[in-house]
Each structure stands twice: as C-alpha cells, then as structure tokens.
Amino acid sequence: MSWLDTPLARRLGLRMPIIQAPMAGGISTPRLAAAVAGAGGLGSIAGAMLPPDRIRAAIAEFRAVAGRRAPFAVNLFAPLPRPSTDRVAEWAALTGVAPPAHFPPAPDFADQLDVVVAEGVPVFSFTFGIPDRAQLDRVGAVTIGTATTVAEAVALERAGVGAIVAQGYEAGGHRGTFLVRVERSLVGTLALVPQVVDAVSVPVIASGGIMDGRGVAAALALGAQAVQLGTAFLRCPESGASEAHRRSLTGETTITDVLTGRHARAVRTPLVDRLEAAGVAPPDYPLPRALSPEPPMLAGQGAAHARALPAADLVTALRAETDAAFAAKP
What we know:
36% helix; monooxygenase; alpha/beta; oxidoreductase activity; FMN; three-stranded antiparallel beta sheet; eight-stranded parallel beta sheet
C-alpha cells in the first residue's frame, strides 16, 4: 500500500495524508486552506478566536475557492473558564501597554459549534480539552482532538473522537495539554507518536517538528496515519503571517506562557526574555495578548526550514520528498 493511501486519508477524502494545522490569530487563512485542499491535503480553518459570523464567512470563502465538495476542517478551542483580571494591572506595568477599559468576551463555543453543524463541516478539530460528549455527538463530522500525552489520547478515544493529533514537544503554537501541568507533557514527537499509536485504536496524526518529506516518512513509519504541519506553511504567500513573523523564523524558539497566558512555543524575543526574567505570573489566557507591544511569533522548532513556496507547491514538494524518503535504500 502506498503511503498516500492510509485509512484516515480515505476516510477524509484526501489524496495524501497531509493536514495543514489550524493556526489562530489570522495565520490560517481560508486561501491557505483552499490551496492545501486543492493540492490533495486537508486545509484547516482556525475558528477558535472568531465569532460565529466570521467562521461562516471563512467557510464561504474556502468553498468559493476550493469548491463545495473539497474536504476541510474547522478548529475550535474546547470551552475554557472565564479569565480573571486580577493580575492585569501588574502585567500592564511590565509591558507598558495600557489595559483596555473592557476586555471583549471570548466567542461562545456553543455558538461557534452551531455554525460547524449548520454548515455541514466535514471535519471538526479541537484542542485545549474535550468538549461535552453531547456536543461532539451533534457535529456529524469526523472529530479530531489534540493530545500531548498518552493519557490524554486515551481520554479522547473514550470521548468518542474519530482521530487524535499527537502533539510533540517540538510543535509550534499553544500546547494542547489538558490533563497535567505542561511541564509533564513535554514529550518529543518521535517518542509520543508510537506510544499513542499503541495505546488507542483510532487513527493517530503526528504533529511537531515535521517540515519536509523526511519527517512525513518518519511519522508514518512510527504508525501515524497522517501528519499535521503548521510552521512549514508560515512562509507561504497564502499565510496570514506578518513579514516580521516570517523574518523571525530563523531565531530560537521556546515554550512560554508570557505571551498569551497559556504555554505556547514561540520565537524567543527580547520581550519574552524580559517578561520571563520579571518572575511575575501573567494574567489568565488570553488577556496577555491584549497587553503586549508585539504579537506572539508562534513557531515550532523546525522553523528555520520553513520554505517560501506557494502552499500547493509545498504540498507537492512534500509528496516528492516523502516518496524519495521511502524509496531510499538504507
């Protein structure tokens, strides 16, 4: 069987088991998702930070480019507790950014999910926990949850998800950890994927540090049925990453909570160093984002290998590289 033809790829209607990771905050544009889908992979719309009307508009934009039959995913954050503003004034004094008079409320998960259901989204992915089982049962789509440990993967399978993203330590963006402290979830992709594959019966998607066909081949050899790449797409012209973000990708990355209030892997900047050195706990997620003089440059450990290619060309290159990796003689 060709590496292209995994059971999960067939279930999702993909020509190759490559998934573009949902990167919230404007990075994952509908245009990027459509380009990946057109090349045979699964494009993802990052809906977590969007109100329902903007999720609906993003879906419409994707379908206008890719067609109504093209497979895609919409990603949301599992419901989170309302953030406390207790440490806002102290944090604003550190960053030099005046807090707003009122922090806008986060979009309501139930309202966001209503759009996913009403629009007939074929794949629904989520992170930061597990939505209520009754909510998952409403979706009628293939569901994908994120795990950073074996225990989280087992919990997701028990909740009835259709597939699990095994998010390694190398991955850029927010950690999806929800059962333990983040410090206990820092397992590399190479170690995490086979453990999760052995622990669950649903398909596993490898994520973290995969930038080219060598990484794709390695993940599939470990038992994953698909791979999810985010940082690899940051330099694509269809990405919503700023020029500063693109330029930063040659820098060192670190896992920190000072940028958003939740642990995420991002490029280490002087601001990160200064806030960490202060030794002050940031306000609850996502309030620090509104109190920062610069946006978070979220990126994985493989960021230096990100290529400035159109997304479709990148997917095509990944296919050729993976073919070559599997064909190579030891």
